[in-house]
Amino acid sequence: MTNVSPNGLDWQHFSGYLEDFRKGLIHIGIAIFMTFIGIYPVVPSALCYLKTLANADLAAFGTPEAFFAMLQLNLEISVLICMPLILCKILAPLPRFFPSFSNKAIFAFWLSSVTLFYAGVFFCFKITLPYGIKFLLGFETTNIKALISVDKFVSFCAMFLLGFGLVFQMPVAMVLSGRLFNVDYRRLSRHRREAILILTFVSAILTPTPDAMNMMLMAIPLYLLFEIGLLGIRFLN
């Protein structure tokens, strides 16, 4: 007799999902490695393009820093490119072990996840990141000139691009949680005030600048994503 929860979750088979996920991680690693090799020639151009956001010279503080910065940027771009595969490997095994999920539903979740991820990256790249860098460099004076480490600059850009892409997954995560754990739409909707407080706090952490304008540029889309997640739970569950 299998231990199946009311939402169709078979806990005895959950270890099977973890095993499939482990195999998926191997495929992801191979894909990232192949992408890493393939895009290496264009990484210097990508760094030059990122440099235009700062409109300042980048400096290497140490002999290997430029080399490791290029490798880091190469890896981060490879992860961004492989994100559809990463999301696919995470979601694909679900129908085998969670009977409440159909293959069509998983495809819809995957497509939504990919779209939202790249929407978050695009939003950060075109709006939040340029505005944040401009704001931070605005504190330069005649006596203080910014000397930007190429390694820290690459890490700074990658952290926010990847962070925004992941945060934009909130509606999909909410709907998945609703399907797995029978989250009640009405009960969750009563906590909008708490959600606004939490999302504002998250926005303050994620945005690269302390000014209220940049924080609002993050908080408003996050709240809209929260409402989309509520609608998804209401209509899909």
Roughly how much helix do the residues carry, as a percent range? over 70%
Shape: flat
| Poorly predicted sequence stretches spanning 5 or more consecutive residues | 4-9
- Our count of domains comes out at 2
Q: What is the residue-mean pLDDT, rounded to a whole number?
A: 81
The largest sheet, given as strand count, sense and whether it forms a barrel, is:
2 strands, parallel
Order of helices and strands: HHEHHHEHHHHH
Q: Report strand %.
A: under 5%
Explain how this protein is built.
The chain is mainly alpha-helical and 237 residues long. The protein folds into two domains: 8-168, no CATH class; 169-237, no CATH class. Helices cover 76% and strands 2% of the residues. The protein is built from ten helices and two strands, in the order H-H-E-H-H-H-E-H-H-H-H-H. The protein is flat. The relative contact order is 0.12. Mean pLDDT is 81; it is low at 4-9.
Features:
237 residues, mainly alpha, 2 domains, two-stranded parallel ribbon, 10 helices, 2 strands, flat
Draw up the topology in text.
Layout: H1 14-39, H2 43-54, E1 58-59, H3 65-91, H4 94-97, H5 103-137, E2 148-149, H6 150-167, H7 170-181, H8 185-189, H9 192-206, H10 212-236
Parallel strand pairs: 1-2
Helix pairs in contact: 1-3, 2-3, 3-5, 3-6, 5-6, 7-10, 9-10
Describe the structure in brief.
The protein is an all-alpha fold. The protein is built from 10 helices and 2 strands; from the N terminus they run ααβαααβααααα.
